[in-house]
Amino acid sequence: MESTLTFLGTGTSMGVPTLGCDCAVCTSSDPHNRRTRPSIRLAYNGHTVLIDTGPDFHAQALREGIRRVDAVLYTHGHADHVMGFDDLRPLTFHGNDHLPIYADQETADSIERIFEYTFRKEDRYPTSARVKIHRIDPTPGAGIKLFGACFQRIPVTHGRQEITGYRFGSAAYLTDMSDIPETSIPLLQNLDVLIIDALRRDPHPSHSHLDKSVAIVERLKPKRAFFTHMSHDLDHDTTNANLPTHMRLAYDGQQIKFEIS
Ligand SMILES: [Zn+2]
Ligand SMILES: [Zn+2]
Ligand SMILES: [Zn+2]
Fold this sequence. Notes:
The chain is an alpha/beta fold. The chain has helices at residues 57-64, 79-82, 105-114, 116-119, 210-220, 236-241; strands spanning 2-9, 39-44, 47-51, 71-73, 99-103, 131-135, 143-146, 149-158, 161-168, 171-174, 193-197, 224-228, 247-249, 255-259. The protein has a single domain, classed as Metallo-beta-lactamase, Chain A (4-Layer Sandwich), CATH 3.60.15.10. The site of one zinc ion has 6 residues, from helix 2.
């Protein structure tokens, strides 16, 4: 079935403009150079699924008119990916069911620690988010079935950590990735859309940089690739002008359509 993916945010952890910076990208008048913290929304089969809720989630949800969320999948527990968790609260108060949250063991533990008032057995904060956390099977390629689609866990390396990327039908989302383990490569074949981390031009210990991400795209051969989690090092127009036409820097609010299954 057809799915619409919206980039809620495409920036690195510090966002662009970066506080206190006067560089050409941070002071640019091009709205494509304004990058909030990274996450995506998937809309398909009458449902809305989010991957990550960063610190800008409230503003992103208002911008995109998000009025309902049916499930949230998390990639890892860093602040730029989980700090919007509490802003899910008003979207969890309607209906009888708790909002399902999916995360690997380490990420679920982080969310329960950071937002511990939500999960207390006694003396729980009364208007905490009504959620149920599901710890996902750590096996590479293990699937989570949601509203007629399957989300597969794709382990990726993020510095010294292993975190969770996701494949859903013909698309994959690999944010915060410095390397793709060889065991994950077979899970990333025959993609229409690959979304991957491209932090900046120079190498970084826990993120892929532009040249490395381009090489990964050339190896995996998706039909289209979009770069995300970008810093102020990458100007939208001038960087795109030098990329192959099937590779683009994503931008906040961008929508793409693909087949999910
Ligand atoms: Zn991040
Ligand atoms: Zn800057
Ligand atoms: Zn991270």
